[in-house]
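Section 5: illustrative case.
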């Protein structure tokens, strides 16, 4: 259904090596760890701050967020929670676009990020100075961008969307007779196009974590574990999704692990999700989908190097010094707010997902 279009040239993104990021962290003694946690809890109370953490950050931060009245979730619920919570300071444990989204929705609040240098390959591969002209060249398209984008890119969009509601939105726009320009993840865009039949122009970006999963190695792992269900995030390549029993957002995959009868799960998304997945499905064997194999170029090895930059010491430092505050140009923020608010409104208007994503089995 796609018309021939010029494929944009995207920047070459060299992701840090996850193992090297983790190796830079000085080991923490039990006494020091507890002292830092106690200090963070005190500062959160004193500064009227709440911690909003993504599923992919270290379990220490996930536990701390929930113990202090914050949230651990996907990017959609992180945005919703931060917008609705009365705290005057939001601390975002995730990557840069998540902090920007929090600021877009909450200009009156102080928004701090645990790791200001934590980027996202999808964001970096879709710079506004290349994306805006591409949109201008397709004036017949409704511009839909994944939440993994900068404020400047969101400012050019008609809609912002997360993986949890992307399929429903594409179906809605198709029913309206609209053609979609989708950015930045080509694998997620292709998946949406396949399951909805929507007419879509795709930006050619990809996630460094999900693109590293290898289908041939996954097929071999399935043979070794025939009792296991394969759970895959739709940012993964099509060959991975074809082997999956369930394709869904992070929240949907956690729900699938709990609801499916299988005793084992092969999980094709960032392994940071295992903390919540173990809580949801205690007693089930969780297995990382392989990133090795013929032609493997893994640097992330199933864990985002930028998510790995979030840690307890960084959180304590941010609270002590007021560092890493997210600031946006007000004109950009206001323009980005329109598309971002539409995401929240649309998510409220649709029935909640059944929780297991899309079955491909």
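Designed sequence:
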């Amino acid at each position: 259904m796609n018309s021939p279009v010029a494929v944009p040239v995207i920047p070459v993104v060299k992701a840090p090596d996850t193992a090297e990021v983790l190796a830079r962290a000085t080991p923490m003694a039990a006494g020091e760890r507890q002292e830092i946690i106690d200090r963070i809890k005190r500062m959160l109370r004193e500064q009227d701050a709440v911690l909003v953490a993504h599923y992919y950050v270290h379990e220490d931060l996930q536990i701390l967020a929930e113990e202090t009245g914050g949230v651990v979730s996907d990017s959609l619920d992180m945005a919703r929670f931060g917008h609705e919570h009365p705290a005057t300071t939001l601390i975002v444990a995730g990557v840069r676009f998540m902090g920007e989204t929090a600021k877009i929705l909450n200009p009156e609040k102080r928004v701090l990020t645990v790791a200001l240098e934590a980027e996202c390959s999808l964001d970096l591969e879709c710079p506004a100075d290349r994306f805006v002209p591409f949109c201008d060249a397709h004036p017949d398209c409704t511009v839909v961008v994944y939440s993994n984008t900068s404020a400047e890119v969101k400012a050019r969009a008609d809609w912002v969307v997360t993986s949890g509601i992307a399929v429903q939105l594409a179906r809605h726009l198709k029913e309206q007779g609209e053609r979609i320009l989708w950015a930045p993840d080509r694998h997620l865009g292709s998946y949406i196009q396949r399951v909805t039949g929507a007419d879509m122009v795709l930006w050619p970006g990809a996630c460094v974590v999900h693109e590293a999963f290898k289908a041939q190695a996954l097929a071999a792992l399935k043979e070794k574990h025939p009792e296991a269900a394969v759970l895959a995030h739709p940012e993964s390549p099509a060959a991975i999704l074809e082997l999956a029993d369930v394709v869904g957002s992070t929240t949907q995959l956690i729900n699938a692990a709990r609801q499916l009868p299988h005793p084992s799960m092969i999980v094709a998304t960032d392994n940071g999700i295992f903390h919540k997945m173990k809580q949801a499905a205690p007693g089930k064997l969780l297995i990382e989908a392989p990133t090795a194999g013929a032609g493997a170029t893994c640097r992330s090895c199933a864990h985002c190097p930028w998510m790995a930059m979030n840690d307890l010491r960084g959180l304590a430092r941010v609270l002590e010094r007021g560092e890493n505050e997210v600031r946006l140009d007000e004109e950009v923020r206001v323009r980005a707010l329109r598309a971002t608010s539409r995401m929240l409104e649309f998510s409220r208007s649709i029935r909640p997902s059944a929780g297991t994503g899309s079955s491909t089995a």
